[in-house]
């Protein structure tokens, strides 16, 4: 049976470059995102570069929480060895100025969707050797950042949820590994969307930042490791692989 890697939010940024990085390793792919034309563009690019890789695209709005189980059921005939929950967006503005509707949409995507898809994957694959769940958090999921209170809270959830899940799986001696990747500033559409600025200049805003290609490489370092956390240090920009960073009461 063919094995597949699922990447959500694959139409741009870290999801897009990670799809190419996994394809370079010969991994078959299932790519999920809202923008069908971007998924088709990525599929064509991968098919040209890596013709032996099977690419399945699944256009879907992951804020449609009520239909996530239907989405997951579409992949019943595929063996999914890795599931990467990358889809998410930020919201950098002070709390008194936040839009309620946009904040709710962010929570739906960053927290609810990620949680439901994680549960569905773990419940089906926890006993399968060689499987991994990788959830994309942020350095904002490990330290508080000004003007990103609500966004940071969603990523603290992702980090703590994934770390605790990883430890629970170990305690039960189940082979599935759960891991969390926490990028710092990364040059993608994220800056424009989270700051609501059409032309967000990373060089002007940050003394150091990664490219999306850089982060795809770091994701693969985490994937290859036995560690559960991969964090980019916000000051040094060193990539640190470690065990859980939150205290565990088990």
How does this model look, in words?
- The protein has 250 residues and is of the alpha/beta class.
- It has a single domain (3-242), classed as NAD(P)-binding Rossmann-like Domain (Rossmann fold, 3-Layer(aba) Sandwich).
- 42% of the residues lie in helices and 19% in strands.
- It is built from eight helices and ten strands.
- Strand 2 (28-33), helix 2 and strand 3 form a beta-alpha-beta unit.
- It starts with a strand and ends in an 8-residue tail after the last strand.
What is the structure about, briefly put?
By secondary structure, this protein is an alpha/beta fold.
How far the N terminus sits from the C terminus, by CA atoms, comes to 37 Å
Give start-end ranges of low-pLDDT stretches. 190-197
Reading the helices and strands in chain order gives: EHEHEHEHEHEEHHEHEE
Topology-level CATH name: Rossmann fold
Name the CATH class.
Alpha Beta
Considering DSSP H and I runs of 4 or more, what fraction of the residues is helical? 40-55%
Class derived from helix and strand content: alpha/beta
Q: From the 3D coordinates, which CATH architecture would you assign?
A: 3-Layer(aba) Sandwich
Count of helical regions: 8
Number of domains: 1
Morphology call: globular
State the oligomer. single chain
Radius of gyration: 17 Å
Number of strands: 10
Strand order across the largest sheet: 3-2-1-4-5-6-9-10
Strand content: 15-25%
Q: How would you name the CATH homologous superfamily?
A: NAD(P)-binding Rossmann-like Domain
If you average the pLDDT, what whole number results?
92
- Please describe the biggest sheet, giving its number of strands, its sense, and whether it closes into a barrel: 8 strands, mixed
């Amino acid at each position: 049976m063919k094995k597949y890697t699922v990447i959500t939010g694959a139409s741009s940024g870290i999801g897009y470059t990670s799809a190419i990085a996994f394809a370079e390793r010969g991994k078959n792919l299932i790519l999920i995102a809202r923008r069908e034309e971007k998924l088709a563009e990525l599929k064509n690019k991968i098919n040209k570069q890596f013709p032996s890789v099977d690419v399945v695209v699944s256009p879907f709005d992951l804020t449609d929480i009520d239909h996530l189980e239907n989405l997951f059921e579409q992949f019943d005939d595929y063996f999914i060895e890795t599931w990467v929950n990358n889809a998410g967006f930020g919201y950098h503005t002070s709390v008194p100025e936040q839009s309620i509707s946009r904040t709710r949409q962010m929570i739906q995507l960053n927290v609810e969707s990620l949680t439901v898809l994680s549960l569905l994957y773990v419940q089906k694959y926890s006993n399968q050797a060689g499987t991994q769940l990788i959830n994309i958090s942020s350095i904002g999921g490990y330290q508080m950042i000004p003007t990103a209170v609500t966004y940071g809270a969603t990523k603290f959830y992702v980090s703590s949820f994934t770390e605790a899940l990883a430890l629970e799986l170990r305690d039960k001696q189940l082979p599935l590994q759960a891991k969390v990747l926490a990028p710092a500033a990364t040059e993608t559409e994220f800056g424009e969307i989270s700051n609501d600025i059409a032309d967000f200049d990373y060089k002007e805003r940050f003394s150091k930042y990664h490219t999306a290609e850089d982060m795809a490489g770091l994701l693969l370092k985490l994937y290859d490791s036995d560690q559960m956390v991969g964090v980019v240090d916000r000051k040094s920009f060193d990539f640190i692989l470690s065990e859980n960073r939150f205290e565990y009461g088990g």
